[in-house]
Amino acid sequence: MKSPYEVILHPVITERSTDNARMGRYTFAVAPDANKIEIKQAVEAIYRVNVLKVNVMNVRGKRRRLGRMPAGETAGWKKAIVTVQPGQRIEAFEVT
Questions:
Q1: CB of 90 within 8 A of CB of 26?
Q2: Which residues, at least 6 apart from 35, have a Cβ–Cβ distance to it below 8 Å?
Q3: Is the pTM of this model over 0.90?
Q4: Measuring CA to CA, which residue among 42, 70, 71 is closest to residue 56?
Q5: Per-residue model confidence (pLDDT) at position 95
Q6: What kind and span of H or E run contains 19?
Q7: Tens-of-pLDDT digits for all 96 residues of the chain?
Q8: Which of 2, 11, 12, 65 could make a disulfide contact with 27, Cβ separation 3.0–4.6 Å?
Q9: Which residues, in sequence order, are CB contacts of 4 under 8 Å at separation 6+?
């Protein structure tokens, strides 16, 4: 069994994710082999909240070039959007 810190890699802080955080939806980068059940258990263990729903998606890497070198790609990653019960918050996403 994986540790919760092996499943949840880091929170994703973007303009869109901070807007979603106000509605109780939090975005995390997760391990590529993690499933919804593992993500739910990890978020509940780390942040002490009750998770209602987990949406998972794979983010494809973008094509990049460096001068005349042939094009390469940035690494793809897996993203999870976690919905918590109304009235609960995750402090890592609080913006002052």
A1: yes
A2: 56
A3: no
A4: 42
A5: 66
A6: helix 15-21
A7: 789 999 999 999 999 999 999 999 999 999 999 999 999 999 999 999 999 999 999 999 999 988 888 889 999 999 999 999 999 999 877 765
A8: 12
A9: 41, 42, 43, 45, 46
